[in-house]
Amino acid sequence: MKKYPKALTIAGSDSGGGAGIQADLKTFSALGCYGMSAITAVTAQNTLGVSAVHPVPPAVVETQINDVLSDIGADAIKIGMLHSAPTVLAVANALEPYPNIPMVLDPVLASSSGRTLIDEEGKIALVEKLAPQITLLTPNLPEAEILLSRNVEEQKDMEGAVGALLERLPCQAILLKGGHLEGQQLMDIFMERGKAPLRFYAKKTDTPNKHGTGCTLSSAVAAYLAKGFSLEDSVKHGHAYLQEAIEAGKDYVTGKGHGPVNHFFGPEKLGEKA
Ligand SMILES: Nc1ncnc2c1ncn2[C@@H]1O[C@H](COP(=O)(O)OP(=O)(O)OP(=O)(O)O)[C@@H](O)[C@H]1O
Ligand SMILES: Cc1ncc(CO)c(N)n1
User: Fold this and answer.
1) Which ligand does the CA of 43 lie closest to?
2) Is this complex scored with an ipTM above 0.95?
3) What is the CATH number of the domain that holds 155?
């Protein structure tokens, strides 16, 4: 009997196709996983920003998750935009019966253009109710600052920050992303509870197409977890996949603002004529 590696994303829809559910499903597909989705909110957005957010009722979010997991099942789950406390609680509730599925939570607190994508009570519920079920949390620096209530301004502050996040949040591991810092060499730092931190370096690519990098990275890690890799190897391979997708997408023009990365740089390259 053949079985696909299966990955579920619980996230918001990005009408522009570069972030959210759309980026997650592209990433799962590019990495050879069967992708499924539970949509938490419909956003109207494009490469210039988010213009509207319409939440899906929490009970409908919970039912999407129940229906997928009780029938098809998932080998890994990625969680993105949750929008509000009732949605966070509905997701925590629906996932509680599945403690053995690895879960990656990208704590989407605001869009890159600054629009808030979760409310204050949602943040508290995320830390208190959902984090205990999470294998890997993937905050960017502004999100880490919100979660820690202190500034993280340089690469040398990141190791202290990742340790402090692990003390404050009951998840198993953290990947703190340094993509928002100045400088030509970027660093992400990964730490599993009780282990030494690991650093992942990347040369900063000169590109306008960075929309959805966070979504793509967390889904790539989830895809590798679904395929049976260890957490450390999934982070390593997920980071490498994103770097290739950023590089492969840098010369394309999509919209007037921040375009997407190129998820399909493999054998069937997006944009190439047959
Ligand atoms: N210009 C770049 N070149 C190469 N890698 C980058 C670049 N910008 C960001 N990255 C990488 O992309 C990943 C996402 O980092 P970032 O800190 O931008 O997350 P994010 O803010 O959550 O993303 P998003 O903009 O999708 O919300 C990290 O691995 C980071 O190192
Ligand atoms: C739906 C959605 N999720 C996440 C992000 C963050 O990139 C976004 N802009 N939109």
Assistant:
1) 2
2) yes
3) 3.40.1190.20
